[in-house]
Amino acid sequence: MSTEFSTQVVLDALQSALPPRHAFLPLHEPTFSGNEWTYVKECLDTGWVSSVGKFVDRFEEDLAAYTGAKRAIAVVNGTAALHICLLLAGVKPGDEVLMPALTFIATANAVSYCGAFPHFIDSEEKTLGVAPQKLAAYLDEITEQRPNGCYNRLTGRYIKAVVPMHTFGHPVDLDPLLEACQKFNITIIEDAAESLGSFYKGRHTGQWGLLSALSFNGNKTITTGGGGAILTNDEELGHLTKHITTTAKVPHRWEFNHDMIGYNYRMPNINAALGCAQLEQLPGFLSAKRELAERYRRAFTDIPGIRFFSEPANSQSNYWLNTLLLDEECAGQRDALLEATNDAGIMTRPAWTLMHKLPMFAACPKMDLSYAESLERRLINIPSSVMLGTGLSNA
Amino acid sequence: MSTEFSTQVVLDALQSALPPRHAFLPLHEPTFSGNEWTYVKECLDTGWVSSVGKFVDRFEEDLAAYTGAKRAIAVVNGTAALHICLLLAGVKPGDEVLMPALTFIATANAVSYCGAFPHFIDSEEKTLGVAPQKLAAYLDEITEQRPNGCYNRLTGRYIKAVVPMHTFGHPVDLDPLLEACQKFNITIIEDAAESLGSFYKGRHTGQWGLLSALSFNGNKTITTGGGGAILTNDEELGHLTKHITTTAKVPHRWEFNHDMIGYNYRMPNINAALGCAQLEQLPGFLSAKRELAERYRRAFTDIPGIRFFSEPANSQSNYWLNTLLLDEECAGQRDALLEATNDAGIMTRPAWTLMHKLPMFAACPKMDLSYAESLERRLINIPSSVMLGTGLSNA
């Protein structure tokens, strides 16, 4: 029996899971069906659109309450969130930061902003994220412990942190990763940009790291236009995060004093207003997304050579971007599938180009990346908007 | 005759220039009296709030048309704009960048983000900005020319750029500054964060620099919530600016390739929607601000020891933040005046703490800063919102 599928069979399966529509179907578009309008109008009516205003405070409190983190600090986007997480974790120029080769560019860029070097690590099939056991074996081989922490014996550089990324919302296997990091004295910073609403062993992602980054870009599960947040369970770090992301100004009735090099990374109030309204709807959004995922799962059950990626064991995923995985022997069909689906008005896309293949990161250290390379050949994201799960179309 | 004024006389003068009001009067609050609502609603109705959408393109085109610059690139705030201006001007780690000691923290922070050192220079009374003749004399004394440009003989560092800042909207004396920079081979980057709507010799500020930075923070003449823009008359640099501020992604139907270390500095569409509506009203805003400035000028004409700062010769200022200057012998009264006005519900504030007095910049090179230090002692900003000039109050 051939493991090959025909492009038409895949198209039919996609159509069967999707509501009827007449317009091009993007990968992920936002739904504004709650209080967005009311809250944004309140900003305009009161004039509080910018750096001061109640919605920033409320959004931070609501995020902390939802995720269970002690502090949430709203910032201008997910990249800024990652940058500050790394900076406050103590990443210094010349250090190395372990991160998956299979991730969005922001993870690697944020490491560069600190003057540090990304060090690329492999992923695993069961989560699409960092492979903890393979990482531990690799660290055993290439690192040595010195009084202040973990060093790469090959480059001589300090390995300060690892940044697991919860790919398309599916949680990394965090417990064995935590164990490995404790053994090797490496700080975890979670790139939770894609995983708002995703839980690992019943607890929201973003709490295994010392600090973690969320994103509310327009294509995310909830959006603030552009925006992000930093989560932490360390009160003191939370305070410092707020301080350094708001120009490090020392509070005073009129004096302008700043006590460190700070960043203008604060989220404007008008964007936080959107965020408050979106967050109110998150439980409904997640139900709709899980409903859509279930429809996809059923539609692809019996097609040989291709499968729908389901949430890892022990995890509840937000199914941010739904994912198809081709069998290795069908990887050659990927581009024809991308072509056919996009031509048919159903937006699909492959994995991001692996980070070590980009010119600016080509010289960075890396472990064997055979699994990430296989995933890159075989992975396709398919439309995942909330409205598709509620049966509404963008027609 | 004493040059001392009484606090009550100053309070009476302020009240006489301001419309009646019942609430606390901030330094600068926004006015949303145009199409803000319509455009923002269009974003929500269409779902285009984020990184893609027509308002970003339109805002950039409208800004270029208004300022006369060939290209305007909208970004997330003025600090991000300054960072990219410096980066694309070629500022490298270890370089020095000349900038006024009398400025907002963003100018110095942006230099730090490049790994470069701020080198603080003095201001002059007639513009409140960089003193070109004093700077030229100083450069004559401390620099030497090498094949690739200007070097500080004292530190051995490359002096790559100077960042004149148009203080409170009043244009720096740009022609003699340009002449000095040509002589010494130093690139100009204008910090025009405060000067949208300000013209020097009939031409909009931001066009003497290779690149220039605008800000649309909530306290600026027009606001996008948080936002900024980069202006340039160099088409190629304009293209590169757009590329590097939008993650340096190479356009493709579905592939994710990036060809350099980029930044996530794009302005979200919902913020640009606000900007389009605000920019439509700019001429009216400027008239109102000039009307308020004229009322202040008249109110302070006959008070000894204190004067209202009027726009420099050859310039038309946006009067972003109106400014009072005490005579040197009255400087001791500044804090009592700040106390009394803020207690009376009229927000006032002194100049920013000079940059070289902040702990993180205390070791940076500097010239004689006697004039900036005098201004710091004597300067008070007073309420400047558009609505105060149209006779509307925030009551």
Short description:
By secondary structure, chain A is α+β, with helices and mostly antiparallel strands. Chain A is built from 13 helices and 18 strands.
Could you explain the architecture of this structure?
The structure is a homodimer of 395-residue chains. Chain A has 13 helices and 18 strands. Chain A is an alpha+beta fold and 395 residues long. The first copy, chain A, folds into two domains: 7-29 and 282-389, Aspartate Aminotransferase, domain 1; 36-280, Aspartate Aminotransferase, domain 2 (3-Layer(aba) Sandwich), CATH 3.40.640.10. In chain A, strands 1-11-10-7-6-2-3 form a seven-stranded mixed β-sheet, with helices on both faces. A four-stranded antiparallel β-sheet of chain A has the order 14-16-18-17. In chain A, strand 6 (159-162), helix 7 and strand 7 form a beta-alpha-beta unit. At the A-B interface, helix 2, helix 4, helix 5, strand 13 and helix 9 of A face helix 2, helix 4, helix 5, strand 13 and helix 9 of B.
Keywords:
homodimer; 395 residues; alpha+beta; Aspartate Aminotransferase, domain 2; seven-stranded mixed beta sheet; four-stranded antiparallel beta sheet
